[in-house]
């Protein structure tokens, strides 16, 4: 008998907006540095009479994601209530888009840059906008008590549901990394997985085919909830696939279950099909339909940055960079722009090197090195190359060379430069009293 893993993903990424999805409460990450329940509006806490107001910024950021994934954006979508009871969900329901999602279709290509052996296109089933829940915290005074922090409640979340196009844990890991990098690149979401800003649900089944048949028999699906760390994704998926194959080899049936993870990254049963909640979806009566016009779509599309794949190809073609170097640049905010600015700088590497040598050899101070660089750059922009002065010539003309190579003289130069740059502070009695007396 042959076995084929079939895997699908549900990616949940917090939308990086200035305010929450349905209230004016700021979405600043106070849960990291501030007090619990600091950013909570009346609606976030489900006060009676408070009503939701859709945040336009969240819609625009969702449009960016849909455009980047080449999805079909629906001109009309709607919100629904997903009912379940949990302490961190004050309303007793979550506002989501179950019946009429924001967008459908689309894809994300996995290429050699993403760490896969064979290029593969992962199809997107749908994209929907929903609100996040709060967070449960342990009590410092009593282990029996649980505290609720609603700073996260009501934050906008983008849910991206894929088709079951994955057949291995490595493909899933590659997609998670690339989709996270993509949403960060276009300014839709952060890359913070540790604080729950990025979570995945993984649906896993194993199809079978006997030697007497050419048809694959679809397997029973299990759902792995709330995977939020890259370092456990591969272990968890491979363990669950092996578990299901072992069950099938023994002649037993795989049960439809919701799984969690233990401390080793192995899957454990949370609940079975018979315990699955009835979410009782219903249209959200307090929100009108979400209408997205072609004009808004075009406005957002014009502001989209260069795609990840196009940027990677360009860095490889124009600068001859290898995959590792490209990855380092693209993982650091602003690094690509900085690299290209340096590559297009009018100063040659030999001119830069000569200046660096002057500083490293103690011929000029670091502060004077910056002054020399400014003059070199201005000269390179305005003059012909054969008329430009070298770093040594500029330092000599301006009398910035350190003729005495002793450490004492070098220190004197640095102190004089600092005093000259901060003349307004030199004669302040309070500063002298603070730094140079014991009282």
Automatic annotation (TrEMBL):
It is found in: Mitochondrion. One of its GO terms (biological process) is mitochondrial translation. It is an enzyme of class 6 (ligase). Keywords: ATP-binding, Ligase, Mitochondrion, Nucleotide-binding, Protein biosynthesis. InterPro entries: Asn/Gln-tRNA_amidoTrfase_suB/E (IPR017959), Asn/Gln-tRNA_Trfase_suB/E_cat (IPR006075), Asn/Gln_tRNA_amidoTrase-B-like (IPR003789), GatB (IPR004413), Gln_synth/guanido_kin_cat_dom (IPR014746). GO terms for cellular component: glutamyl-tRNA(Gln) amidotransferase complex; mitochondrion. It comes from the Eukaryota. Signal peptide: none annotated. Residues 6-297 form the Aspartyl/Glutamyl-tRNA(Gln) amidotransferase subunit B/E catalytic domain. It holds the Pfam family GatB_N. It catalyses: L-glutamyl-tRNA(Gln) + L-glutamine + ATP + H2O = L-glutaminyl-tRNA(Gln) + L-glutamate + ADP + phosphate + H(+). Its EC number is 6.3.5.-. One of its GO terms (molecular function) is ATP binding. HAMAP family: GatB (MF_00121). Belongs to the GatB/GatE family. GatB subfamily. Allows the formation of correctly charged Gln-tRNA(Gln) through the transamidation of misacylated Glu-tRNA(Gln) in the mitochondria. The reaction takes place in the presence of glutamine and ATP through an activated gamma-phospho-Glu-tRNA(Gln). Subunit of the heterotrimeric GatCAB amidotransferase (AdT) complex, composed of A, B and C subunits. This is Glutamyl-tRNA(Gln) amidotransferase subunit B, mitochondrial. It comes from Physocladia obscura.
């Amino acid at each position: 008998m042959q076995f084929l893993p079939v895997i699908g993903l549900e990616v949940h990424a917090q939308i990086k907006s200035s305010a929450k999805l349905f209230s004016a409460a700021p979405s600043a990450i106070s849960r990291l540095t501030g007090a619990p329940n600091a950013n909570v509006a009346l609606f976030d806490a489900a006060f009676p009479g408070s009503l939701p107001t859709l945040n336009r910024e969240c819609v625009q950021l969702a449009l960016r994601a849909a455009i980047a994934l080449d999805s079909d954006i629906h001109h009309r979508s709607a919100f629904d209530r997903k009912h379940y009871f949990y302490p961190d969900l004050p309303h007793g329901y979550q506002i989501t888009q179950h019946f009429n999602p924001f967008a459908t279709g689309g894809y994300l290509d996995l290429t050699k840059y993403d760490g896969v052996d064979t290029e593969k296109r992962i199809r997107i089933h749908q994209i929907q906008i929903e609100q996040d829940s709060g967070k449960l915290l342990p009590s410092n005074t009593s282990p029996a008590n649980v505290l609720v922090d609603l700073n996260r409640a009501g934050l906008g979340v983008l849910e991206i549901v894929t088709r079951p196009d994955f057949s291995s844990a490595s493909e899933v890991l590659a997609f998670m990394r690339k989709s996270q990098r993509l949403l960060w690149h276009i300014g839709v979401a952060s890359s913070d997985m540790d604080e729950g800003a990025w979570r995945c649900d993984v649906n896993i089944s194993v199809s079978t085919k006997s030697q007497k048949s050419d048809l694959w028999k679809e397997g029973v699906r299990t759902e792995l909830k709330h995977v939020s760390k890259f370092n456990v994704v591969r272990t968890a998926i491979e363990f669950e696939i092996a578990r299901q194959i072992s069950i099938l080899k023994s002649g037993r049936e795989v049960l439809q279950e919701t799984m969690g993870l233990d401390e080793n990254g192995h899957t454990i049963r949370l609940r079975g099909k018979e315990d699955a909640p009835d979410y009782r979806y219903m249209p959200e009566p307090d929100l009108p339909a979400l209408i997205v016009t072609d004009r808004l779509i075009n406005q957002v599309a014009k502001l989209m940055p260069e795609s990840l794949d196009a940027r990677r190809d360009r860095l490889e073609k124009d600068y001859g960079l290898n995959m590792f170097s490209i990855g380092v640049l693209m993982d650091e905010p602003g690094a690509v722009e900085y690299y290209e600015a340096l590559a297009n700088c009018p100063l040659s590497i030999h001119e830069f090197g000569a200046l660096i040598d002057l500083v490293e050899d103690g011929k000029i101070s670091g502060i004077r090195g910056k002054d020399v660089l400014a003059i070199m750059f201005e000269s390179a922009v305005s003059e012909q190359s054969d008329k430009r002065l070298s770093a040594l010539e500029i330092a000599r003309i301006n009398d910035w060379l350190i003729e005495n190579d002793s450490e004492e003289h070098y220190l004197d130069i640095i102190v004089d430069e600092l005093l000259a740059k901060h003349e307004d502070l030199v004669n302040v009695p309070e500063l002298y009293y603070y730094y140079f007396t014991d009282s």
